[in-house]
Structure formats: C-alpha cells, structure tokens
Amino acid sequence: MTEGGAERVRAGLESLAALAARVAAEEADAVAAIADRYEAVLRGGGTLFFAGNGGSAADAQHLATEYVVRYQNTRPALRAVALTTDTSLLTACANDLGFDEVFARQVEALARPGDLLSLHSTSGESPNVIRAAQAAQARGVPVVAFLGKGGGQVKDLADVSLIVPSDDTARIQELHLAIEHLICDIVEDRLRG
Fold first, then answer.
1. Which DSSP symbol is given to 139?
2. CATH number for position 53
C-alpha cells in the first residue's frame, strides 16, 4: 500500500461528506422542488431531457436510463431522453452546424411545452449547454440546471439552478449525480403506482 494513500482517501471522502452536508443544509428545499417539477412533467405525459459534456454527458445517459428502465423499483417506464447518445446525430451536427448546436438542435426537434430540459455543467459556461438552454426557452420548455463554480451563464438562463458550492469538477459531478439519484428516488416512489 502506498504510504499516505489511506490518509488521502480519508481526506477526500471527508471533504466530499462536508460538501454534501453543506448542500443538504442549504439546498434540500430546492432539490425537493426540482423533484416536484420532474414529477409534474412525467404525470402530464411530458419528457425529461438530459444533457451535459464529458462526465456530465455520462450522467445524462445514466439518469435517462434510471427513468426509462428503473431506479429502485420495477414500475412503468417514464419518459426520459439523454441528448448525448446518438453519435450519428452528434457528429453530423458538430460537422455541419458546429459543436455548439449539438444539444440545441435536438431540443428544437424533440422538446415541446410540457417537457423539461435538465442540464448538467460544472462551469455553466459550455457554449453547447448555453445554446440548449436558449433553445428550450424559445420553445417554452423549462430548464433545470445542475451547476458548480458559481453557475456561469447557464444560471441566468435556467428556470431553476442548483449550484454546488465548489470549484472541484469531480466533487461537483459526484454531488450532481447523488442529488439526481435522490430526485429519481422521490419521483419513482410517487409514480410507482
């Protein structure tokens, strides 16, 4: 075992736990309100759309899967789509229109009033995430944003922003996924029947 490895593990997990405790103390009501929004969209027959870049793209796929397939319990499928998964669409759009349009173009094609766009961005400054929020606004589709590092430009484009108070990309993404899992748990429990 590498010397200092165990101490580094302890320090990292304690730091993550402290950040999670801070978010729990400051944002629990906001997270519950986002769960209410997700539930209302799904009850109304709408679709949850998820998008982000890098690790946040992986989270988008992960989360859409939790709603469509199942999270904790087997129940009817819920409408959710990750805008990060169609490689033909993503590469054609990036090639023909530019990478900034890869999510916005899908929002224009697929999203309608009654749906909701959930964006994940640790900085809130990614041009393609900003354009997705703008495209959703233009279509009357609400935007929920999971952000960090102060929220960037996206915080002002979203109907609801949850900003993890950190500049550490990994910690931000870890909490985004944990929070989204809590939301999914709430929504699945309410819609199970």
1. T
2. 3.40.50.10490
Residue 107 has pLDDT above 60, yes or no: yes
Q: What is the pLDDT of residue 3?
A: 64
Secondary structure tally for the chain: helices H, strands E: 7, 5
> Do residues 111 and 49 touch, judged by C-beta distance below 8 A?
yes
Are 80 and 50 a contacting pair, CB within 8 Å? yes
Q: Is the pLDDT of residue 193 over 90?
A: no
Neighbours of 120 (CB within 10 A): 30
Distance CA 115, CA 111 (A): 6
CA 47 → CA 24, 79, 167, distances in Å?
A: 27, 5, 31
- The count of domains in the chain is 1
User: Is 36 inside any structural domain?
Assistant: yes
Report pTM: 0.95
What's the burial of 73, exposed, middle or buried (CB within 10 Å: 0-12/13-18/19+)?
A: exposed
User: So what's the pLDDT on residue 2?
Assistant: 59
- What is the C-alpha to C-alpha distance for residues 125 and 82, in angstroms, rounded to an integer? 20
Structure tokens at 113: 């009033």
